[in-house]
Amino acid sequence: MKTRPFLLLALALLVAGLVVAAPAGAANPRGLNLPEDFSYIGAPVKSFTTESGHVVNYVDEGEEDWPTVVLIGGAGTGVRAFELTEFVRDLRLKLGIRVVCVERNGFGMTLFEPADANGDLIPWDAGDAALAEADPVKTREMYAENVLEVLNHLCVNDFSIIAISGGGPFSGELARQAGTRVRSIHLAVAVYQSSPWLQYPDPVFLEAMRSYIVNPMVWWDMTGTTADMIPGWQERAYDEAAWAAFVRGQLADPHAVAMDYTIFQMTPPDVSMVTAPLFTYYGLLDTTVLPTQRDAWIAAYSSVCDLTQRDYPDGVHDVQYRHYDQILLDVAGYGDYLVIAYKGKTRVIPEAMWPKYERRGAILGIQAWVTAAPPED
User: Fold this and answer.
1) Are residues 375 and 248 in the same domain?
2) Which residue blocks in the chain are alpha helix, DSSP H?
3) Do 359 and 327 lie in a common domain?
4) Which of 60, 196, 270, 297 is the least buried, fewest Cβ under 10 Å from its Cβ?
């Protein structure tokens, strides 16, 4: 029997209609309240040319009229280390905190152009012999100068400072140069000074540093710490390590990280004249940055009258993330309060009331830490 062509066409249209038809009772999509803007996937990285001609890269996140904090990341980190703190982005936005993070010399998109003994910039293409003349103290000073130039460019006058781990010496230099512009200082397991070791530009030291950063999954391995309990955080950390060491094709060039670790060995900047309130956050079980580094900073900031010392008895070298929510609360000006999780909610309480809440089962930090768990293999 012959099938008429129009019947085949009708059957095809019927099948197509069954495939694309909306389920019975589905809402009309014309009434959906759809977003107007892109979803956040990360802060844009901007660039600025300093008076010396050095191009620095930075992140500026937050409203212009919000209180500003300068975030200085740990050893060997690029500007996208900022993203490792954005797991409490909603809290930061609710507190109204603007963050500026300026990339250090040689990491990420920023060329390695250190300072010589006179404080003059050594161009990145000057050759190994010229770069070998880099002075670690002058390079540390130049970073602080770069940060202040960026802040001036952004019309930021007063600001707070957060230093994470290896960001310690750079934060001290910034505080020294900025003086009364500094509103408060927050040292999160921040290094004061490390023990003498090999230094830049020793070839053995350079090769050792390269062996550390060449594999981002080794260099930024935080598995087993509380930071690893934040969904997706460890993967973002690998991304940051790859950014810092590879993004512009530098192929794990060790000069920048070797300079970082040499700066750690230098005599720390003199911060005895700084009077801004000082907050410290250290883990008493931390074997990477010992609490003695905290004591050294407190002694160095000898003119500070307002000191808040936050010690975490079970804290290791992850306090800078496990308690970043508290750091933000302190930056916002609520240093007499604690952020806690209690009865299924995040709450803010006067610090004096903490013993009572602790006896009732409360924990420090936002509610997410109550249910946080290590990722599945």
Assistant:
1) no
2) 5-20, 89-95, 128-131, 136-153, 168-178, 203-213, 216-219, 233-246, 255-265, 291-300, 319-322, 324-331, 354-359, 368-371
3) no
4) 196
Instruction: Provide the residue count of the chain.
Output: 377
Please tell me whether residues 318 and 236 are part of one structural domain. yes
% the chain with pLDDT above 70: 93
Quick check: helix, strand or coil at residue 186? strand
**Distances in whole angstroms, Cα of residue 238 to Cα of each of 4, 84, 126:** 63, 10, 31
Q: 337-342 and 363-364 as β-strands: parallel, antiparallel, unpaired?
A: antiparallel
109 in a structural domain: yes
Q: How many domains does the chain have?
A: 2
Alpha-carbon torsion (116, 205, 110, 80), positive or negative: negative
pLDDT digits (tens, 9 = 90+) for 94-121: 999 999 999 999 999 999 999 999 999 9
pLDDT 10s digits, 245-297? 999 999 999 999 999 999 999 999 999 999 999 999 999 999 999 999 999 99
